[in-house]
Amino acid sequence: MQRDSRGRPSGDGSEGPADAGRRLFAEYETRPAFYDEMFEASGVPRAHCRQLCEALDEMRPAEIAAMQEYAERSFLHQGITFAVYGEDGAQERIIPIDFLPRLVDAADWDLVERGLRQRLEALNRFLADVYGPGRILEDGVVPVDMVRGCPQYRVEMRGLEVPHGVYVALCGTDIVRTNDGFVVLEDNLRVPSGVSYMLANRRALKTSLRNLFRRHHVRGIEHYGQLLRQTLTELAPPGVSDPCIVLLTPGVYNSAFYEHMFLAQEMGVELVQGSDLLVHNGFVYMRTTAGLKKVDVIYRRIDDDFIDPLAFRPDSQLGTPGLFYAYRLGNVTIANAPGTGVADDKSVYVYVPDMIRYYLGEEPLLANVDTRLCREPEGLEYTLDNLDKLVVKMVGESGGYGMLVGPHATPDQRAAYAEELRKNPANYVSQPVLDLSVSPCLTETGAAPRHVDLRPFVLRGNETRLVPGAFCRVALVEGSLVVNSSQGGGGKDLWVLSE
Amino acid sequence: MLSRTAEGLYWMARYLERAQNGCRLLAEQFIIIEDRPVEQIDQSWRRLYIAAGRTPLGGHLEPPPDDEDFMLADAYTLADDLTFEPTNPDAIRNCFAAARESARQVRNIIPDKMWSALNLAYFDLRDVEIENIWNDQPGTFYERTEGAIRTISGVAEGTIYRDDGWHFLQLGRFVERVQSTAALMDAHIALFPTDAPDCEADWLSLLWISEAHFAYRRLYSLERSPSRMVDFLVTDPSLSHSIRHALGRIVDALDAVAVGPALKIEAERRAGRMVASIDHDWPDRDRWDDDATRAALREIGESCRLLHQDIAAAYFNYEIKDAP
Fold it and tell me: Model's pTM, two decimal places?
């Protein structure tokens, strides 16, 4: 049988003798160290997965592989791609899809949803506080120097009123599950991406596995674009009833350009680049074929640094001069607000549970990863003593940069890293290696467990909204814990079941 | 509509039209190659190159076409140059890639089905080289590629909402058509004067390239006169590849786009003058004076170039004096 690069059966529908009669889950084994999303034990599906398992088991693996391949081909044709930059310039790649959906039952989702609402509420209050009165800093709950010294802290935002006190209008929170339950890995509060792949994966599965889909009571996520538009409409500057909303993209060479254009399409708003906008008399306009048109709300997919060369990085080619000035005057809304990055800094992250207690008087519903701050002597000592067991991260970085995965590093690498760490401990945090849950994925030998996480997307306008779904990332390589799309990760559809 | 979006659509349509023209010209060229004497094949290559304003690799266009240097290259090299040559911006594949890139920039307002059609055709074309098409029938490659572009236009026709985006697509397509038709006819008359003997097959090929043969036969089956053909291709408003028809579509599109800044009036006036000139001045010219005809065609080409500038100045990069 032909195998593709991932070792899956090729999608020609033919099966060699060795495959005859093989069932999808015949050789599937659970491992106690990892929570299995579908099985309680080998051969014993969880209650909410039983129906799906039986239905999938009746299909031939090659049949599913063929559907999967068809879906991936149509992703490519439709341009559902992200750009990867390498020696040959930019390449358009798809995020591979694994066709075996991950199921989440109503009770689990309820917990995740309530936990996310709680978390976003606290984070928005925190941002309003640190750019406003600074109570939480005065009360010593979060260290002042950690916040004010954070590179993502924007002093330009001090004392600024933002509509409805909403700094973070959209976030994409990374959540994993271990044997101890759900854990928040990080809050992405700047320009989170991935929601378009969530919707594309759903569309692909819904088309191919129509009957299967219909039999389950899967909650819909297709209205995300409407919710997003509703949210942005509510955040318009005071007095603007029918705001002109635009999505600001760095352009076609950005790796998430597909998503930018997809969301603009879903919302029915213009997709603009910095050069399409100009600021005049403190208002923002876009250049249209019928002259200049006033812009009220900007959903920006550009980092803070690049939105306005006059306010932030002067060498930015992507931004619009004067945009931040118009924002300060309250004539335009920028979502997310500049400066939200201070709340998803990896050391500030440690204090999110405290923020929830401080602002809301509640206990956090979703746990944090047990994280140690190397700025604190005991944290540093523990980290250095256990370097071979820990993951060490730099606080300002994301996407896996500047990270040491202790158990996978050589003694030399660990020693070199330790030396850097000692020079500037405040720049580091450490965490235990997490036992990410697994979910069955299609491989050449039928289904096999692979590690997964999930990224739900939460919106905040007048109220908090989210669709019951998430971009479920999966590490397609056996044993790998890396789910990042740029490093061999794929996606899965996540089905949230109603009762 | 965003100016940048309108410009992207305009250029996408221009490049697609240019690629489609290239396909039709080369498809016809490979039919000519089949059964015509060498000199005539040479002449028809020349026609292609003069119309494109390009010098073939290893040759040059001036001094005039009878210079032997001109035909240094063989069909393989010439077809490669016009189809795949990376440094030739008007090579079919480059036009197609440019059309796709323009489309990608404005992907959010292009219907999914249209993008898929465009993207599929692009993937088909992207990795092909001249040697891949040569061993088979090269002509079928051009027919197939032209068919793919026709499919894209058809999907566009069937899916695009008729707002400004559509009108800018029409503008791009027909501005390109006016320019390329005028240039092709100018080159054709230079090589095959209207009173030259034994050129009937070449004139018929001009009709084929211009999608005019069926209509011409129906209307003038007994009158195979070059000057009749020239008039037909320039003035008949009902012939989709005639200059007059394309100008009519330009006028309609300019009329339909939302009222823009003041400069719009310049483009409308110029297009109106071009129509009037064909309707009223063209018939007065001396039909047997090829120089006068060619001068008139060049005048049309030049006006069209200015029309492009008017459109860009009115909609794409207009000067901003005072914000509202």
Answer: 0.90
